[in-house]
Amino acid sequence: MIHLQSLTCKYANKTILEDISLHVSTHLSVLGANGSGKSSFAKALCHLIECEGDIFLDGKNIADLTPLELAKTITYIPAKLQVHDPYISVYEFILLGRFPYKESFFEYSQDDKICVDTNIKLLNIEHLKEHSIHSLSSGEQQLVLIAQALTQESKIIIFDEPTANLDPFNSKVIAHYIKKLQDSHQIILITHDLHLAFYIDTPVLFIHKQKAHYYEEKETFFDSAILEKLYGVAFDTLAVRYE
Questions:
Q1: How does residue 79 score in pLDDT terms, banded at 50, 70 and 90?
Q2: Contacts for 180-184: CB closer than 8 Å, 24+ residues apart
Q3: pLDDT digits (tens, 9 = 90+) for 37-69
Q4: 3-state helix, strand, coil in the chain (%, to 5)
Q5: Does the pTM exceed 0.85?
Q6: Distance CA 186, CA 74 (A)
Q7: DSSP-assigned letter for residue 101
Q8: Contact (CB, 8 A) for 44 and 17
Q9: Distance from first CA to last CA of the chain, Å, rounded?
Q10: Radius of gyration of the chain (CA)
Q11: How far apart are CA 87 and CA 188, in angstroms?
Q12: For the segment 87-141, what is each residue's pLDDT rounded down to a tens digit?
């Protein structure tokens, strides 16, 4: 559960998001034009950027949570994998998801490793676990990011543009995994992919000119007249099908 009170985010005195108050008890898709503030919204929820106002996750103000407590509550999956260690393997990278639970100065436990193995199997990437993370395709890297997020065992998972660097087939694969995760996690999807948002089938938050407009019913948002008004271009039937 996410509750926002007067959320305002600025960069160099430029307002990106202004006075957003919202209660989200289910899944949510966040849409908007490029540069509208979608990623800023995602990073604010994870306390990755400083903002004014209050953000509550499961009734707790994120300002009062330690980094480890926050990591156990919410996970942020970026659009593109960025790892500075060129030699880290897929298995080692996913194991880092257990860091919030690891005792200081001790090795990862057997339970931690079982959790990693379980999620590697779930994502069907057993054949990749010894590979260097940098040797993977964009689609494979996205699966690894999901595996690490599941290993972190947080209640809320934020996907920030998960299909931005993928071809249509791999986008469909990722879309199906996200849909399946709705049974076990609260999913916040940040995307400009209208086809993906339509398939994920959640309430929509549309960000425009620093403001957020909430559409509880997906059908209300995905009306051609509404889409044309919001995006400034004419819309016909959505083309890509993720079913």
A1: confident
A2: 181/146, 181/150, 181/157, 182/27
A3: 999 999 999 999 989 999 999 999 999 999 999
A4: 40, 25, 35
A5: yes
A6: 9
A7: G
A8: yes
A9: 28
A10: 18
A11: 31
A12: 899 999 999 999 999 988 889 999 999 999 999 999 999 999 999 999 999 999 9
CATH code for the domain defined by 2-82+154-231 = 3.40.50.300
Q: Measured between alpha carbons, how far is 179 from 163 in angstroms, rounded to an integer?
A: 13
Question: What is the 3-class SS of 11-66, one letter each residue?
Answer: ECCEEEEEEEEEEECCCEEEEECCCCCHHHHHHHHCCCCCCEEEEEECCEEHHHCC
Q: Which two tokens stand for residue 28?
A: 């949510």
Q: Are 74 and 155 in contact (CB under 8 A)?
A: yes
Distance CA 29, CA 24 (A): 11
Buried/exposed code over 160-186 (b: 16+ C-beta within 10 A; e: otherwise)? bbbbbbbeeebbbbbbebbbebbeebb
Element (H, E) at 159: strand 156-160
